[in-house]
């Protein structure tokens, strides 16, 4: 994979590479590409990641491991519950406007603690203290949408949150919206199953 540049990849091709890596991970046949000294030296002066992975900070959701990629392959942004804020949007805009990355993956997972905390706060009417409250407030619109659809299961709520996050991301950033509209970039929502190790596509904006 070390000779693959992001400028040579379409969003669909970038997603295919991630799917192939995840399939290796699920099968226990990981290749650990681009993780040696030669690759490290190659990246000293430049980077050409072929995808952005915006995922939850959960310790079980290490993007490079899940998708079996290495140094320089993916640009990673993580917050608890994959919550969007200005710093996240700035990082994503940088990846598209400066690095020309063709694919943004919003990565959620089952049994998400941030989504669980939000559901509990919504059901009880009691908000958590400190800055955890900020996380809950940002996830609450997704829980409200799920609730209106009759969804109360946490894992199904996570799927809804991933869908809402991909939509909000494109709506919030003119840079991302323009890139998607022009076909330069796609934004997709993916959920990860902790027990199986499998990443599954659940939503998308742009062509794959």
TrEMBL record:
InterPro entries found in the cross-reference section: Carbonic_anhydrase (IPR001765), Carbonic_anhydrase_CS (IPR015892), Carbonic_anhydrase_sf (IPR036874)
E.C. no: 4.2.1.1
Catalytic activity: hydrogencarbonate + H(+) = CO2 + H2O
Key words of the record: Lyase, Zinc
Coiled coil: none
Listed Gene3D superfamilies: Carbonic anhydrase
Transmembrane segment boundaries: none
EC top class named in words: lyase
Family: Belongs to the beta-class carbonic anhydrase family.
Role noted for this protein: Catalyzes the reversible hydration of carbon dioxide to form bicarbonate.
Protein name: carbonic anhydrase
Organism: Zhihengliuella salsuginis
Record gene name: cynT
């Amino acid at each position: 994979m070390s000779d693959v540049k992001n400028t040579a990849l379409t969003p669909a091709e970038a997603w295919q590479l991630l799917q192939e890596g995840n399939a290796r991970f699920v099968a226990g046949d990981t290749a650990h590409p681009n993780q040696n000294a030669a690759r490290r030296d190659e990246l000293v002066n430049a980077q050409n990641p072929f995808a952005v992975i915006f995922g939850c900070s959960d310790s079980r959701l290490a993007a490079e491991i899940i998708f079996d990629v290495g140094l320089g392959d993916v640009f990673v942004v993580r917050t608890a519950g994959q919550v969007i804020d200005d710093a996240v949007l700035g990082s994503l805009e940088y990846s598209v406007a400066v690095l020309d990355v063709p694919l943004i993956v919003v990565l959620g997972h089952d049994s998400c603690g941030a989504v669980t905390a939000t559901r509990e706060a919504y059901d009880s009417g009691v908000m958590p203290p400190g800055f955890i409250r900020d996380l809950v407030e940002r996830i609450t619109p997704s829980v409200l949408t799920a609730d209106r659809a009759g969804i109360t299961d946490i894992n199904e709520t996570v799927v809804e949150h991933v869908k809402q996050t991909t939509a909000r991301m494109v709506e919030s950033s003119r840079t991302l919206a323009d890139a998607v509209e022009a076909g330069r970039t796609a934004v997709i929502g993916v959920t990860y199953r902790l027990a199986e190790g499998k990443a599954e596509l659940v939503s998308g904006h742009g062509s794959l």
